[in-house]
């Protein structure tokens, strides 16, 4: 079978070595095939507006590209089979369908083309991440609402610290995800500009309107420096960083649930649908899905490191090194998306063992801070009160006497909580653990989810409208 002629082959006497072709090709480009075609449709319309191609030629090209979009949507991997990259695959197919096809690459380079493809990919998938975050936030909010007064130990250094409500703990995870959402939104705002028209590095002599192409693609801004526009991959780093932080948060949550599911804690029961057994020990029920979350969370972190390592010493201007950031970017989004999905299922279905949690939170020694606070409120200096209560705790441990008895024998007048709920309710400060504070946090969380939903919904509609308009829907 005769090999395909490279579309850039005019300068060369010999064809590219087959091994070199395989080594330098981009099979992962299937992930950005749709985005490449969307960008090409906008570019064709921009060429027509500039008078570089006729209206008839533009219509021919756009119609062919819309047909190719359907092919790619059906099976992008098959469409790209044997091609150097997505750009050459689309152009070759277009040229076979339309005599005007060879004109499409006027005033465009693969350098600004791939920069645009990746920006569109990041934009679309950032919206997907934000939707996944909201889904998990809603699951946490539902569970927190149902566990408002469920009490358990709060931990520092993985040691009993102070009793807290489970709702308070779940809302802490909610707040982490809120920051994740805002971080992605900030990335999108900062990086939302079109590089189309920057060409290879220095712009173009053709009179194209970059503001027009930016508008067609739904970008509020266009590039201001053509060298930077084709070199920049900060937006890839930003996306990978945001995904890595989200993955870190999910890994932390998974680790807690792994611990809580152990016999030593017995705080939760994981449903069968999210557990596995042992090939040799019939009694085992393992928290595998939580362990997979914890383990897979390393991937987005590695992806961030991979992108940074590629970029760390590159001079300005496009280099083929940049081709290799794609696989890290695609993996980062795919893994983080799956982590969010499984975490939502996990939170929604896990059963909390309220009695066991309360039992673990009922150690009077964990009420010591409330005793110190009472002494301070009666006029004692904090450090003096801390020392006094610390000595009482030590004596209680040495003698086995109740802390309240030790304090009473020492002549200390303090109300030692008799149940963990009393301890929790003493902490009514802003953002604290009392029920009144939890109610405020719940109201705030509900309004946050509503606001995020409106913001995301508007962004999704803008993106869908842009795509539908360019596809003629």
- Determine the fraction of residues in helical runs and give it as a percent range: 55-70%
CATH architecture verdict of the largest domain = Up-down Bundle
Using the coordinates above, name the CATH class of the largest domain. Answer: Mainly Alpha
The parts where pLDDT drops under 50 for at least 5 residues are none
The secondary-structure element order is HHHHHHEEHEHEHHEHHHEHHHHHH
Distance between the termini: 39 Å
Beta fraction: under 5%
GO cellular component, one term: cytosol
Subcellular location: Cytoplasm
Enzyme class: lyase
Domain Argininosuccinate lyase C-terminal: 370-406
Structural notes for this entry:
With 473 residues, this protein is mainly α. It folds into three domains: 83 residues, Fumarase/aspartase (N-terminal domain) (Fumarase C, Chain B, domain 1), CATH 1.10.275.10; 250 residues, Fumarase C, Chain A, domain 2 (Up-down Bundle); 55 residues. 63% of the residues lie in helices and 4% in strands. It is built from 19 helices and six strands. Strands 1-2 form a two-stranded antiparallel ribbon. A two-stranded parallel sheet has the order 3-4. The protein has a two-stranded antiparallel sheet with strand order 5-6. Helix 6 packs antiparallel against helix 7 and helix 10 runs antiparallel to helix 12. The chain is elongated. The chain starts with 17 loop residues before the first helix and ends with a helix. The mean pLDDT is 92. Belongs to the lyase 1 family. Argininosuccinate lyase subfamily. Its main location: cytoplasm. It is found in: Cytoplasm. Keywords: Amino-acid biosynthesis, Arginine biosynthesis, Cytoplasm, Lyase.
């Amino acid at each position: 079978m005769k090999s395909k002629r490279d579309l850039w082959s005019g300068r060369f006497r010999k064809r590219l070595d087959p091994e070199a072709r395989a080594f330098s090709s981009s099979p992962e480009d299937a992930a950005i095939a749709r985005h490449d075609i969307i960008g090409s449709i906008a570019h064709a319309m921009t060429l027509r507006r500039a008078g570089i191609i006729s209206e008839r030629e533009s219509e021919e090209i756009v119609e062919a590209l819309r047909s190719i979009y359907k092919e790619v949507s059906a099976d992008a991997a098959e469409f790209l089979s044997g091609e150097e990259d997505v750009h050459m695959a689309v152009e070759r197919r277009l040229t076979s369908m339309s005599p005007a096809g060879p004109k499409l690459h006027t005033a465009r380079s693969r350098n600004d083309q791939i920069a645009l493809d990746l920006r569109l990919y990041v934009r679309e998938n950032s919206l997907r991440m934000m939707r996944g975050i909201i889904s998990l936030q809603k699951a946490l909010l539902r569970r927190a609402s149902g566990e408002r007064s469920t009490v358990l130990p709060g931990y520092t250094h993985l040691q009993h610290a102070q009793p807290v409500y489970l709702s308070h703990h779940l809302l802490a995870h909610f707040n982490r995800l809120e920051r994740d959402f805002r971080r992605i939104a900030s990335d999108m705002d900062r990086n939302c500009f079109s590089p189309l028209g920057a060409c290879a590095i220095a712009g173009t002599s053709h009179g194209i309107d970059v503001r027009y192409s930016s508008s067609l693609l739904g970008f509020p801004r266009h590039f201001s420096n053509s060298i930077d526009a084709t070199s920049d991959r900060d937006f890839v780093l930003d996306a990978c960083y945001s995904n890595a932080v989200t993955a870190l948060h999910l890994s932390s949550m998974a680790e807690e649930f792994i611990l809580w599911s152990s016999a030593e804690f017995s705080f939760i029961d994981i449903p069968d649908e999210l557990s596995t057994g042992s090939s040799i020990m019939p009694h085992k029920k393992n928290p595998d899905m939580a362990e997979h979350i914890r383990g897979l969370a390393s991937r987005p972190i590695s992806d961030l490191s991979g992108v940074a390592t590629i970029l760390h010493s590159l001079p300005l201007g496009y280099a083929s090194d940049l081709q290799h950031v794609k696989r890290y970017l695609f993996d980062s989004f795919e893994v983080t998306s799956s982590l969010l999905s499984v975490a939502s299922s996990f939170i929604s279905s896990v059963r909390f063992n309220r009695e066991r949690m309360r039992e673990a939170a009922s150690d009077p020694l964990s009420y010591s801070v409330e005793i110190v606070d009472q002494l301070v409120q009666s006029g004692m200096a904090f450090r003096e009160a801390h020392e006094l209560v610390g000595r009482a705790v030590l004596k209680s441990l040495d003698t086995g006497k109740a802390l309240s008895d030790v304090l009473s024998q020492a002549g200390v007048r303090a109300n030692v909580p008799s149940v963990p709920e009393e301890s929790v309710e003493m902490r009514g400060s802003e953002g604290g653990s009392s029920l009144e504070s939890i109610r405020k946090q719940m109201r705030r969380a509900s309004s946050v989810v509503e606001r995020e939903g409106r913001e995301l919904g508007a962004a999704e509609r803008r993106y869908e409208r842009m795509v539908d308009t360019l596809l003629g829907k």
